[in-house]
Design goal:
The complex is a heterodimer of chains A (120) and B (201). Chain A has 120 residues and is mainly alpha-helical. Chain A contains 6 helices and no strands. In chain A, helix 3 (32-52) packs across helix 4. The radius of gyration of chain A is 16 Å and the shape is flat. Residues 1-45, 58-102, 138-173 and 180-186 of chain B have low confidence and may be disordered. Helices cover 27% and strands 18% of the residues of chain B. Chain B starts with a helix and ends in a 46-residue tail after the last helix. By secondary structure, chain B is an alpha+beta fold.
């Protein structure tokens, strides 16, 4: 949860840098430093997902369930972030009760996802 | 920050690498090279900050996957030697990297400038020229700024005009392509020459 909030918070603070990270055509992924940074980011994500599943996730080999959990978490937060940065969540936020923030919306979304995972 | 460095392909070359670039007078010169491998036009643009001579030079050549290899065409090279101390004169150490300026670290200065450009102009405005201009504004005397623009424009393959001589081969920038002009938007991803490496997966 904290990682997801930090992810969204960074994107809100540095939208240009965040956008650059996903512009593949402007990145040279053959560079060791960038590869290292990307791998470190993935390791952080895998670690967080592994902690929620109460298991150790290997960085080199994933089970289908582990890979699905990682992709689900990343897709969820990244999609939320992109919608937020593009202003496409404004309509949803406008219809919410006064005082509802982006952070509370994200929190509710993540809680619903986690609850569904636990129930399934 | 490392992502930004990668995006700009900022690299430094060793003394040997500079020698291999084909200029005998550069023997023994250490230089920092800022490369822009813009996939939009398939050209590589280099800005070199020469430490010992205190000069600034820019060149453009066809992009190729092997940056140290020979180009298919001889690159146009425009050099302006203002005899200004734009790099650290006290740096006498040997080694593959000399990326400092006399006011501090060149690499850090360029990255900071790139971040400022990114914040101010967004991703579309993040070009090698904009970063160099931003860095020069912050740390270099005024003459360097006015010297950079003709050099870059003259060496740019994008400074198109009706003349039969390719504009990037001219020493003087055409009136339609002053240094303030922006790079055109990159071509679509389908035009990329570089494959996506496995580590992206």
């Amino acid at each position: 949860m904290a990682g997801a909030k930090a992810y969204v918070g960074y994107a809100q603070t540095h939208p240009g840098m965040y956008g650059l990270m996903f512009r593949t055509e402007r990145l040279d992924m053959s560079r060791p430093s960038l590869c290292h940074a990307a791998n470190a980011s993935f390791a952080g994500l895998a670690h967080a997902v592994g902690a929620s599943r109460h298991e150790q996730i290997s960085e080199t080999a994933l089970s289908l369930e582990q890979a699905a959990a990682i992709a689900r978490a990343w897709s969820l937060v990244h999609g939320f972030t992109m919608l937020l940065l593009d202003g496409r969540l404004a309509d949803i936020l406008r219809r919410l009760p006064n005082g509802t923030t982006v952070e509370s919306l994200l929190e509710a979304m993540l809680k619903a996802t986690l609850g569904r995972q636990a129930g399934s | 920050m490392s992502l930004l460095a990668r995006a700009l392909c900022i690299r430094t070359v060793s003394r040997q690498a500079v020698r291999d670039n084909g200029s005998a007078r550069d023997n023994g010169v250490k230089a920092a090279v800022l490369c822009s491998t813009d996939p939009g036009d398939g050209w590589i643009e280099k800005i070199r900050l020469d430490r010992r001579r205190g000069s600034f030079s820019a060149s453009a050549e066809p992009y190729q996957s092997d940056p140290e290899g020979k180009s298919a065409e001889s690159p146009e090279r425009t050099e302006i030697d203002w005899r200004l101390d734009i790099t650290d004169p006290t740096s006498g150490r040997d080694g593959p990297v000399d990326n400092r300026r006399h006011h501090g670290a060149l690499r850090v200065a360029l990255l900071q400038a790139a971040e400022q450009v990114l914040q101010r102009d967004g991703l579309a405005g993040l070009t090698l020229r904009a970063v160099a201009r931003q860095a020069a504004y912050r740390t270099a005397p005024r003459p360097i700024i006015s010297a950079i623009s003709p050099a870059l424009s003259a060496s740019s393959p994008r400074s198109a005009s009706a003349s039969s001589t390719p504009s990037w081969r001219r020493r003087e920038p055409p009136a339609t392509c002053r240094w303030r002009s922006r790079w055109p938007a990159p071509k679509p991803m389908s035009d990329m020459r570089r494959p996506i490496p496995a580590c992206m997966a």
